[in-house]
Amino acid sequence: MKINILLDTPDSFLHEYVHDLIEKLKERGHEVCFFEDYRKIKNGDMLFLLACKTILRKEHLSLNTNNLVIHPSKLPEGRGSGALIWKLLEGENKIYLTLFEANEKIDRGNIYLQEPIEFMGHELSDEIRHKQAIKTMELVLKYVDHHNNLKPQKQQGKGSFYRKRTPEDSELDIDKTIREQFNLLRAVDNNRYPAFFRLNDHKYTVKIFRDEKSQDDEN
Asked: Which domains does the chain possess?
């Protein structure tokens, strides 16, 4: 099969994993093309949209027989941006990824696969993203290997929608405890959107790392 992959978010963590995915697809005998610009998408059997900032229009969706998105929520719940982080902030540690057919409406296509990721509650951003990436790649391979036996299911119910997170969402409340805000500290990215707080007209950046020695002691 001809499989296309689009990943047009330059700083997405998935860039670290996509080339391994491409190799696994090629080992299965598929022809694979990788794009970072939606305007360069070619005709094919499948197009996987991974961490894409672009909402494709019909003219681009028509180039491939199937256009697949993997979204980090149990659709129709949690449509929109940053769903996994919003769920963590709500105290959830079992979060689903949904592989579904893309259309011109955001996160509303027919569903093929839904599988959970389970967190222990101590993972920080890098570990969270790693688990998300591994499950994302697993779902791509599962769909490619078994697509002939997968029946699309229409999304049922009204669902919910999350707004896009901004750097301002990483602000800590100086009047709350660390325990109360630990899920926010888990969710922040130390480089792209670090935690911060304001005090006496000054802004302070806070970066969080798990102590490697304490991690070794746990093991």
From this structure: 2-162 (3.40.50.170), 167-218 (3.10.25)
